[in-house]
């Protein structure tokens, strides 16, 4: 029981850290490659409204 509580405790910070990594700014060389026409994170999937 204690082990399952521990894993649930550690789950949230990991998710937050992953979201922070995904939220990083676009590298300058990608902007050069695409003529600076990027308006959203293309890796987040298509057809999903940003919340």
From TrEMBL:
It holds the Pfam family Ribosomal_L39. One of its GO terms (biological process) is translation. InterPro entries: Ribosomal_eL39 (IPR000077), Ribosomal_eL39_dom_sf (IPR023626). Residues 1-10 have a biased composition (Polar residues). The keyword Transmembrane does not apply. GO terms for molecular function: structural constituent of ribosome. SUPFAM superfamilies: Ribosomal protein L39e. Residues 1-25 are annotated as: Disordered. The keyword Ribonucleoprotein applies. It comes from the Eukaryota. Keywords: Ribonucleoprotein, Ribosomal protein. GO terms for cellular component: cytosolic large ribosomal subunit. PANTHER family: 60S RIBOSOMAL PROTEIN L39, RIBOSOMAL PROTEIN L39E. Belongs to the eukaryotic ribosomal protein eL39 family. This is 60s ribosomal protein l39. It comes from Nicotiana attenuata (Coyote tobacco).
